[in-house]
Write a structure and sequence with these properties.
The structure holds two protein chains of two kinds. By secondary structure, chain A is α+β, with helices and mostly antiparallel strands. Chain A has two domains: about 1-30; about 35-125, Sandwich (Immunoglobulin-like). Chain A has helices spanning about 1-10, 10-30, and strands spanning about 35-40, 55-60, 65-70, 75-80, 85-95, 95-100, 100-105, 115, 120, 120-125. In chain A, β2 and β3 (about 65-70) form a beta hairpin. Chain A is elongated. The mean pLDDT of chain A is about 90. Chain B is mainly α. Chain B has a single domain (about 60-260), classed as MetI-like fold. Chain B contains 14 helices and no strands. Chain B has helices at about 1-30, 50-60, 60-90, 95-105, 115-125, 130-135, 145-155, 160-165, 170-180, 185-200, 205-210, 215-225, 230-250, 255-260. Chain B is globular, with a radius of gyration of 23 Å. The model of chain B has no long low-confidence stretch (mean pLDDT about 90). Classes of the chains: A alpha+beta, B mainly alpha. The interface of A and B includes residues 10, 11, 85, 106 and 107 of A.
Chain lengths: ~120, ~270
């Protein structure tokens, strides 16, 4: 009876719910933090661009450091396997054309993400 | 009835005024609005929680959080044990009891800043600088909380204590088996006050910590403020994250806390 009262009190339930939530979140993070980042690069007309260079920069309040580069395949797709951060910027370049820098915010470091909006190349100014 | 309505309306207005800064804090934390924007938005525009993620990763927040939790737990445990014993001792008759009470009460008039150098020297002599126990040391026992326990113990009927003595219980067992179970509001008040004081303590950790690994959340907040001065949204997210545990503890123990503060107020 005494244990039942303790188990039903808010002093037990609130910390227990917090611990359970934290545990579940950590499991989710562990299962989805491989650093995979995928997307597409298109030209101003919306056609996929093969062989474009995509630059991944890690961004924080003070600095922005380039971490990786990759090239798009024949379908204009790119993929990074080792994104280390939760706050990144992507930019595509192809010859004289470049896309604007796109900031991507993730819920945790290395979160797997498919970028839905393609990086759209435009003539550099 | 009409009079009561006005009273409630006045209380609601006062509550809104008092809660407005907290609302603004939360609103700024979940948006990326410029707080100097005019006219300001009353409701959050495009709310998001990424500022909290930034704070978690861009500074050693988990380390600060862990340090604050450890120090607060030590302070709460110390307060419960030492204050309960001191409060119980002050309810017992002994020579000079009145003088001790007067001395303790007069000590509450001395600000902590005035005693900080001797406190530092004592902590240094004990070899506790830059340690969790050292961080919690000045808050291991607080006079206000001793008197909260004393008031609560004074409200316990004397006949109950006499009956326990006749049954052969020693003083420590009377405290543990009779006094404390009847003083849960005082225990809750002690937990809330010592937790919040320890959680918000800034000056003492600033003085006795030597490494960043031992810093607590208030120090982390000051460091964050000096390091990233133009990131108001993340700063406010940090403030919310510092405030949240204290608020949670207070809300959980709120009713017992109020009872604890008023125990003994109507005695006699």
């Amino acid at each position: 009876m005494r244990w039942r009262r303790i188990l039903l009190s808010r002093f037990f339930i609130v910390p227990a719910v917090l611990l359970l939530g934290t545990g579940a979140w950590n499991v989710y993070v562990d299962l989805h933090a491989h650093g995979l980042l995928e997307g597409r690069v298109v030209d101003p007309a919306g056609k996929p661009v093969a062989g474009a260079t995509v630059i991944l920069s890690v961004h924080d309040f003070v600095t922005q450091v380039e971490k990786a580069r990759t090239r798009t395949d024949s379908a204009g797709r790119f993929r990074f396997d080792d994104n280390p951060s939760h706050l990144i910027q992507l930019q595509a370049q192809d010859g004289t054309e470049a896309s604007p820098r796109v900031t991507i915010r993730l819920w945790f470091r290395g979160q797997d993400r498919v970028v839905q909006e393609p990086l759209r190349l435009a003539p550099s100014a | 009835m009409r009079k009561l309505w006005w009273r409630h309306a006045a209380l609601i207005v006062i509550s809104v005024i008092m809660l407005a800064p907290f609302y603004w804090l939360l609103k700024t934390a979940i948006t990326s609005e410029n707080i100097y924007e005019y006219p300001p938005h009353l409701l959050p525009v495009r709310p998001q929680l990424f500022n909290f993620v930034d704070v978690w990763y861009l500074i050693p927040f988990p380390r600060y959080l862990f340090n604050s939790i450890v120090v607060s737990l030590i302070a709460v445990a110390g307060n419960l044990v030492l204050n309960a014993m001191a409060g119980f001792a002050l309810t017992l008759p002994f020579v000079g009891r009145r003088s001790v009470i007067v001395l303790l009460l007069s000590c509450t008039l001395i600000p902590f800043q005035a005693t900080i150098i001797p406190a530092y020297l004592i902590t240094a002599h004990l070899g506790l600088l830059n340690s969790y126990l050292g961080l919690a040391l000045p808050l291991l026992s607080t006079i206000v909380c001793i008197f909260i326990f004393k008031a609560s113990f004074d409200a316990v009927p004397r006949s109950l204590i006499d009956a326990a003595r006749i049954d052969g219980l020693g003083e420590m067992r009377i405290l543990l088996r009779v006094m404390l179970p009847l003083s849960t509001p005082a225990i809750a008040t002690n937990i809330v006050l010592s937790f919040i004081w320890s959680w918000n303590n800034f000056l003492w950790p600033l003085i006795i910590t030597r490494s960043q690994d031992m810093q607590t959340l208030p120090l982390g907040l000051a460091r964050f403020l000096s390091y990233m001065e133009d990131t108001t949204d993340a700063l406010y997210a940090f403030v919310v994250m510092v405030l949240a545990p204290g608020l949670l503890v207070f809300l959980m123990a709120q009713s017992a806390f109020m009872r604890g503060l008023t125990t003994g107020a109507t005695k006699g």
